[in-house]
Amino acid sequence: MSYRAETETPSHSGVLRRYGDRLPIGLETPLISLGEGDTPLVRSRRIEGRVGCRELYFKLEMCNPTGSFKDRGMVVAVAKALESDAKAVLCASTGNTSASAAAYAARCGLDAYVLVPHGNIAQGKLAQAVAHGARILDVRGNFDDSLRLARRISEQHPVALVNSVNPHRLEGQKTAAFEIVDAIGDAPDLLFIPVGNAGNISAYWRGFVEYYRAELATKKPRMMGWQAEGAAPIVTGKPVENPQSVASAIRIGNPASWLLAEAARDESGGEINAVSDYEILEAYRLLAQEEGIFCEPASAACVAGLLKYARHSAGATGGRLFADSSVVCVITGHGLKDPETALGIESEMQEVEPRIEAIEEAMGLAR
Ligand SMILES: *Cc1c(COP(=O)(O)O)cnc(C)c1O
Questions:
Q1: Which residue owns the Cα nearest ligand 1 atom 2?
Q2: Whole-structure pTM over 0.90, yes or no?
Q3: Sign of CA dihedral 284, 289, 291, 293
Q4: Distance between CA atoms of residues 305 and 292, nearest Å
Q5: Nearest residue CA, atom 1 of ligand 1?
Q6: How high is the mean pLDDT in each 10-residue block of the chain (367 residues)?
Q7: What residues are in contact with ligand 1 under a 6 Å CB criterion?
């Protein structure tokens, strides 16, 4: 198969062409793309006032081709797999990695294999992997078991492992940090981001540091990472045997990029803390109803974190500093992937007769 660099994506050029000079690619790397990256950075309308910072933006990574930021790293990992003549890709996944791997593999004529921890995948994500023709193996264990097995298989067979332990994934994901700086002209003061396997927080930090060193930014943000209370190994300092959370994308007990994430936290003067499922669902509802942004629960974790952080810093000496801060929340994935959670919140559907009077009455309109 040949890859025609100019015609593959006439509108969105993709991560490989846009940031190729900062990625580990060469003349032999095919410039594949599904139009990933170049996602919107939108200003908050209501939550900004609630938390009281100077400016708040949402980086809408849900607008990537498969509905999550995973596409940024996957496009690099799959391009490198093609370059090294792999015939198949393999990943362990609670969903978005498999959706992304399946899409890019389908586009490039590779087989895709997905190890899914039993009972741990949202319906929308499973639908994506199925639609793209991936071979899905339901592993009777948790995510950490699935990843361990995927690593072993890739060591012993000519199959490219495309989990975030694949270094090309983080390289691709760092481009989101570049885009934020390119869009607002400098790095924000604070970056709020959900933390699961901890690859993304590490990748953003790498991107911000790289732009700072290249003098494309005058500062680096404090990295504010958020785990779910029932899956908060970095907060408690020890792996979680049985991670639990409504936010399946961050339901991870032993993060692959644990040390990198701690380094990002410490070098940036940031924090990694936990939010409860209740706080996550409250932020999820606020985003949808006050900002018009329908994300998945894992993404809402960082907004829950922002609301919590703002409450705590309000009285303390950090309050003034925070009021002067520019903040970006990374909205990692789309709400449509996990409709069960949305419907579970308030399924207030009302039955009406097919008559205009009945509709008017239900809408509270006088006649
Ligand atoms: C993968 C994912 C995360 C967690 O990112 P890590 O790199 O594993 O920390 C958060 N939200 C969504 C929607 C994801 O798909």
A1: 249
A2: yes
A3: positive
A4: 19
A5: 249
A6: 56 91 95 97 97 97 98 98 94 92 97 88 88 94 88 92 94 98 98 97 98 98 98 97 92 94 98 97 96 97 97 72 94 91 68 92 87
A7: 68, 70, 96, 164, 194-200, 249-250, 296, 298-299, 332-333
